[in-house]
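Need tokens for this chain, all 785 residues.
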Amino acid sequence: MTLFSKRSVIHILLAGSALGFTSAQAAAQDQAASNVSTGTAGGGEIIVTAQKRSERLLDVPLSVTAASGSQLLKQGISQTSQLTKVVPGFTYQDSNYGTPVFTIRGVGFQDGSFGAGPTVTTYIDQVPLPYPILTRGAALDLERVEVLKGPQGTLFGQNSTGGAINYVAAKPTQDLSAGASVSYGRFNSVDAEGFISGPITSTLRARVAVRGEFADGWQQSVTRPNDRFGKKEFYNARLLLDWTPTDTLSFVLNVSGWQDNSEVQAGQFQQFAPLAPANPFTQFIYDALSTAPTTLRNAREADWTPGTGHQDNTFYLISLRGDWRISDAVTLTSVTAYSKLVAHSPFDPDGVAFTNFENVVRDALLTSFSQELRLAGTAGPLKWMLGGNYQRDIANQFPTVLVNDATNGVLPTPTGPVYQDESTYIFNQQPTFKAVFGSLDYNITDQLTLQGSIRYTHHDRHFVGCIMDAPVGPNGTGTVGQGFLGLSELLSGSPSTVGPDGCLTMNDATFKPEKVLKRLKENNVAWRVSLNWKPDPDTLLYASAVKGYKAGNFATAPGVLASEFDPIKQESIMSYEVGVKHSFDRVVDISAAAYYYDYKDKQLLGVANYPVFQNLPKLVNIPKSRVWGGEIEMTARPIEGLRIQAGVSYVNSRVQKDPAIPLDPYGNVVTFVGEPFPNTPKWQIVSDAEYDFPVSATTKAFVGGSVSYRGKSNAAFGERPEFALPAYTLIDLRAGIEWDKWQAQIWGRNITNKYYWVNVSHILDTVARTAGMPVTYGVTLGYRF
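Here are the structure tokens for all 785 residues:
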């Protein structure tokens, strides 16, 4: 059963379109409200909340990219991954297991588990979405998005060593307004979105927004010409209630959720790379994969095991924010939130129609409760803030992996080899974060300000994990159970029985099966100091030093031995940054920044050589590395109706000290020293331009387009050519007309049909690519009053 039905989405959209307020007065009120909802001041200045208070973007001593909700809609941006079109220095990558990885300035965390904490944390109205998988529906009905670059650990908490993404939802309006849009495009894609907003009483306002995304499969099987994959079916909704019972007290309730029944993208087979030598048990695998067709000619070619299912992921979020203006100078703010994801996400990343590796069941339960309480105020030349934060998560995962046809699937036992087929894993983590924080801004003069902030965080994480039969037999009677019990007897010298709850993971000392219980406790102090100079109202120069942290984590390992679940420790970044922002009479706005990061214990998904299973993914810490670079962004309005935006980012990353055993994707000992980080191109360029002009007294037309460039990088350490991510350029175009309350647009994305890929992975015996989308095109019709 889905959270939202397709019929209900269409009904709500039609109802929003049929309300039909047409008075000129209402239209004028809607226009005034839109100035607020796009986060602009009367002079076109962008207002952001990057420091948890409203201020001009020009006055914020941070590198921030902001984009309005209308800009995102025109550019077809409906997911966090698509922010690569507007944010220089931001990259997106599908992990080896299909989960999203967000990176800013080379700082990212490549781990395929649902419960992996990121380096770039996403927020919706300052409410954390602590795991990247939860961000799927965050871009619904937005006022704007703010992307903060560099460590943000003092105000936004840890797990933001790369930066933070803060979505700001469009708020309920004082007057009744509504709108809807429907797009139709290639692969029979239909995107329908709508909202209705307005007052319920004199003190209570509401806004309801819904969205549905549907498309046929866009991937083509190279072995079954009529088979398609990659179907999209996604539903999203949000209810916002604003209540202002008094002039000094206000509350905002957010109830939102989404349902994703889409198919996870299949891989593109590149080459056969066996983990284990051939033997009589595995020769058939060599025969099949040595002749498997490659899928390297275009983005649509792929392959997957017939019958691979679709996702059934359900997410909801409830948050309540309260603001009490105690006096003209002091405000107390409370933000309470609870979110829950129940996921069933089968996928097949190996790129072949062969069960070399397939997650036939990938179930997860993620919950997060957070409470923040902060007091902020002013006192003469001082602005201050004091607060505390508590967050408790549950991140439980229960993947079932089918490896019938893998070369490392034979387990030695006293009675002979046993070939395993299907195994289930338990990866349960329960992290708790407790933090206190504070900040001070002191105006030394009217032009010079000293800022400081600090945050102490205590992190306590419990872990339970093991490998077991699938389905769990009463005495480990499946092939995995037989193999592990036989291997345990062979290594320990005595017969073995399954551990608690059917666990088969072996103790490192006794080689007897056990359920692995571990705990990780960490503390850190993040801080920030900044000196800001404003020689005039339209110019800002700043210099800052920032210390940020990302929490440690437990590995989602195969679990042959208990030590494979040992945690990685927290990473830290010491950042130094200088920047300048200037507005030339609102005609040209420019911002630029240069930075240097001293990076300790970078967390990375590497490779380890496991007993029996050979080389498989494992989390590692890189002791020492560094990043330096710079970026510049510009918005120009040279003539009436023309807007030009452009940004350039340069990132130079290097490993300076190897982990204990640096291995390439095939398990060969190499050195990482001198190599750039994976998925970290040196150069990125984003640009967008639009020109609108009148064609009659009631109608105007617009034409626009965007160009984005991403330089070359590698998907893994080792600099092997098959893991290269070549440079590519994507071009999008759009054109349309606006009349009365209607808008019509035609659009094309990746119009040159550039074939590019965002990841290359070695999972078991295959090397496979994850391709970017091919050319898409379509039309959009919208109505708003």
